Amino acid sequence: MNPFGEEIAAAAARLVVEEGLEYAAAKRRAARDLARHGGGRGGRQAELPSNEAVEEAVREHIALFCADTQPLELAALRRVALAWMRRLAEFRPHLAGAVWRGTATRLSSVHLDLYCDDGKTAEIVLINAGIDFDLAPASGPDDSVLTVSSPCSELGEPVTLHLHLQDHDALRGALKPDAQGRTWRGDQVALERLLADKEWP
To answer: What digits encode the pLDDT tens for the residues 20-63?
Structure first.
């Protein structure tokens, strides 16, 4: 990665940790800000760093500035995720994003992938439980996202939960690892094991 890409990754990491931005938005904003302050250097043609590069920068930022608070916040978010995975077990939920990868802070959202033949079924479950949600199209052509607000007593504030509705067939490729051999998501058993292996407060 070129030096400007490294600067973008570091700046994006700060936005992810301190403002709770998702990686794509953080990279775009970091590139704009750096190009503006650098006299147009790189501009819109600058190659944005990969999500993996930003994630490594996030880990470094957390280690430097949030080492005392982030583990507690991550544990709280993982427990929220686990509660919802148990609640939505019929849809074979898998935890993804920063909460699964271990880089989440209190500003992070929880991302759960739900695998079902008909996304309307998940909507009906939430409606029958009296849970308010927002429905939005996702980036893929065949899935959508249900967004709910979940209370979290440990953090003292609600957590945003995104339920990504996906087709059953998508589950086959869901557990492919990254270049370092780390999985992008995990099921309920994997999360329970992860929580049990850590000496969380």
So the answer is: 999 999 999 999 998 887 644 544 456 899 999 999 999 999 99
| Domains assigned to the chain | 3-65 (no CATH), 70-197 (3.30.460.10)
Question: What is the SS3 string spanning the chain?
Answer: CCHHHHHHHHHHHHHHHHHCCCHHHHHHHHHHHHHHHCCCCCHHHCCCCCHHHHHHHHHHHHHHHCCCCHHHHHHHHHHHHHHHHHHCHHHCCEEEHHHHHCCCCCCCCEEEEEECCCHHHHHHHHHHCCCCCEEEECCCCCCEEEEEEECCCCCCCCEEEEEEEECHHHHHHCCCECCCCCECEEEHHHHHHHHHHCCCC
